[in-house]
Amino acid sequence: MILFFISSSSSIPKPPLPGSNTITKWKGNKNKNDPSSGLAPSSSPSSEEQKLVDDRPAPGSAAPVEAPTSNFTMGAIPATGKMNATFVTLARNSDLWDIADSIRQVEDRFNRNYHYDWVFLNDKEFDENFKKVTTALVSGTTHYSTIPKEHWSFPDFIDQDKAKKVREDMAERKIIYGDSVSYRHMCRFESGFFFRQPVMQNYEWYWRVEPSVKLYCDVGFDPFRVMAENKKKYSFVISLYEYAETIPTIWDSAKKFMKQHPEHIAEGNSMKWLSDDDGESYNHCHFWSNFEVGNLNWLRSDAYIKFFETLDQDGGFFYERWGDAPVHSIAAGLLLKKEEIQFFDDIAYWHVPFTHCPTSEQKRLENKCACNPKDNFDWKGYSCTTRWFDMMGMEKPEGYQDQKD
Ligand SMILES: Nc1nc2c(ncn2[C@@H]2O[C@H](COP(=O)(O)OP(=O)(O)OP(=O)(O)O)[C@@H](O)[C@H]2O)c(=O)[nH]1
Ligand SMILES: [Mg+2]
């Protein structure tokens, strides 16, 4: 039953943390300065994204500029070439072949033309084989970092007995990952700490990639550049309703934050998408965070950190089973203006069990898409994307009615 699949997983620059073990592997040139290897695919996105995508660099100018990330000024948009951005993956050594699959997808459809870096994070040290295989697959520079214990453990204010009882109860109720301690650490880490790892401090933009995901169309534009040039801070491809039993009190914590920190609540935010009664209750809509392209400075902002800390103190990562998807989504929905959130229709994507496949046939053909449009989740009853279009006043693509349930 799909409801059991929907929850998705998931800290401010502080001095490098003790125990943090960052290994950087600088790679050879790998044709990075060879213009012939930097041709952007000839795909041409259309519909509501056309305007955004039209700002992309001319084919051939997109990739080959090699710029050391340390030379970037945060917030500056380079006129051409690469942005200050990285892919980021949280994974275990045992995820190697599933992440290898994902990397291949991302490289073939996008990164072979851009050579962005890739950061791998793990609560244990990555083994040599993991590093060897992933370094061979990524066309940019790879970095491997071990997460410090403080970011992957129970905070001292958590009552262990209470947390254990919750896990036992959720196991009985067969809530997916309900009995898992590691899944909870993972969700808390993705909510509050991945962007605070020392290795992430070098970057302004991230694209999150999980094991075993697929990209079905050529991505013939640079999503980081599109985000920067259009003042976007967060993006999504799939949205849906969260499994309510994993987050019974998350909205109480969010309301507490709104009351304590009205200065951080954006005017013109997405409250209408999150709530059907002006903020009284949460409708469980969230962006599926196993895919994200976002701005790290936003996550490192006082507003986001205060939001995370308010939620964290309430203990719901352990006393319930809060996922990073609702955490990021509620934060984006409240702290950002709605126009700062981007729906990437052009990035066709699959993570079990849902697909985003562009509704427009023209778009699918132009971008060499291999997804079956019938699988597109956007307009199905369990998706929140219709609501997103309605709130944004965006016109739905032709043929969307045929893709409802
Ligand atoms: N290092 C590490 N990574 C983890 C651990 N658990 C999950 N991850 C990673 O965290 C991300 C989310 O975990 P998933 O197991 O994919 O969670 P999900 O997407 O909610 O559920 P699935 O439907 O199983 O994919 C993935 O990138 C995993 O590789 C862990 O214990 N250690
Ligand atoms: Mg996953």
E-strand count: 13
> Number of DSSP helices?
14
Fraction of residues in helix: 25-40%
Strand arrangement, major sheet: 1-4-3-2-5-10
Give the mean pLDDT.
86
Please indicate the percent range of residues in DSSP E strands (runs of 2 or more): 5-15%
> How far is the N terminus from the C terminus?
15 Å
Uncertain residue segments: 1-71
Q: What global shape is seen?
A: globular
What kind of assembly state do the chains in view correspond to?
single chain
Q: How much is the radius of gyration in Å?
A: 20 Å
The major sheet is characterized as: 6 strands, mixed
* Class based on secondary structure composition and strand pairing: alpha/beta
List the helices and strands in order: EHEHEHEHHEEHEEHHEEHHHHEEEHH
Small-molecule components bound: guanosine-5'-triphosphate, magnesium ion
Structure explained in plain terms:
With 405 residues, the chain is of the alpha/beta class. It is 30% helix and 12% strand. The chain has a six-stranded mixed β-sheet. A three-stranded antiparallel β-sheet has the order 6-12-13. The radius of gyration is 20 Å and the shape is globular. Residues 1-71 have low confidence and may be disordered. This is Glycosyltransferase family 15 protein. Residues 35-47 have a biased composition (Low complexity). Residues 7-72 are annotated as: Disordered.
